[in-house]
Design goal:
heterodimer, A: 248 residues, alpha/beta, six-stranded mixed sheet, four-stranded antiparallel sheet, 10 helices, 10 strands, globular, B: 260 residues, mainly alpha, 9 helices, 87% helix
Chain lengths: 248, 260
Amino acid sequence: MIRLRGVHKAFGEKVVLKGFDLDVPRGATVALIGASGAGKSVVLKHIVGLLAADRGSVAVDGREVAELDQEALYALRRRVGYVFQFAALFDSMTLVHNVEMGLRRVPGLSRRDIRRRAAECLELVDLEGLGDRYPAEISGGQRKRAGIARAIATRPRYLLYDEPTTGLDPVTTTVIGRLILRLREEIGATGLVVTHDLGTAYEVADSMAFLHDGRVRAHDAPGEIRISGDPVVRSFIEGAPELMETLA
Amino acid sequence: MPGKTLDFVGATGRAALRFAGTVGEWGVLMQDTIRGLRAVRIWRHLVFEQMMRIGVASVPIALFIAAFTGIVLALQASYTFTGAVPVYLVGSLVGKTMIIELGPVLTGLALAGRVGASIAAELGTMRVTEQIDALETMAYDPAAYLVLPRVLAGAVMFPAVTLLASALGIVAGWLTAIQLLEMSTPEFVRGLETFFVPFDVVFSVIKSFSFGLTVTSLGCFFGFRTRGGAAGVGRAATSAVVASSMVILVFDAFWAAVLL
């Protein structure tokens, strides 16, 4: 389980999180929605220790991330797959080598196991046959899928998706959404999907948390969020800034 | 007027604090890099590749600079010595200057441009495209994976390239002396041997070793702290070259004061 309590984070003068609370129960998929720049990706980076909270608690499987020593932090990171917004593939490596990178850090895997598992992961995201390509030689949607293949290679307990559908066409967006659902069934990972794409959030999430002004403004089932009476939530899901203006 | 003086003092203080902060950040990265030595499995297979990129690929530019430096040294020494100093000392000047000064410093400055900018741009691009974050999420220590192989390769290859460049500079000076200055080979060699001491080579190696550490560590440092997309990558590359060049010249004076 992932649990964040009272997380505060500022970058210089810019305060991003102001007492952020969120629970991601084991086996569930939670979508964290909110406007661009609201701090959704910042939340993900706290979970894997890429950022440290100024105040508050970030715990995974009951252990405070900030208190982990290096080995324990690496062990945590091996249990968490991270899908980056722009895939963050290593551009000097082929796709198969990208996927193998994480596997090389898993103790006890032979070279043969690593190669086999990398091939399986590429197949799982429908990229079989493209393993020898470099990231620059494939499309944006394929890069996203390669990023997902890399994230799932270590069979993580948790999958963190940072804007998995941003910048993709509607068809590819649907493909990625279905892939997230399929992966949940096949590897059973707990998921936290950061997105401002409501279609994807409704499709993949068990619950949706709406981040606004550094806090979770609403956290409910997708059906409830869809009919929320909160004008701030409505403003976001309807794309109607005038609703926000009435609050000002 | 007192207001302007205070502004100047304040601005100087803030600049000094920024500088101290930057040096401190570099120190932390170097500490992480030294700690990364323990993770042998992560970096050992990457050092050879970096030695090729940093050292072997830099040989042509280093040799080009050294050859023309050797030619010019011989011509200028002959011009300066004519009628006043025995001409065989052209060999002394070419040899001594190439080994203890121009070989290491010109090679260092050339490689600061070629290697330092390349490292900063590569790691800077990795930083702004979140590739370094991705490495971390896959349980890699970025200092061990990215910095250590480059710094080790620089520490080994800068002295090697410098010795090669110094040797070629001397050969170019010798060819110039016998072809254009009507000197004989025994005269040139006599000059070469007159003031040569083996410590000169040790001195050259120590200098170029420190230049290798400087260029690669600063390239990595500025690459790692890159912010702000393509413009940030450009700034990182420029900062790496400028800072490396300045530190090379400071080290040059330092080693001369300490070791000679």
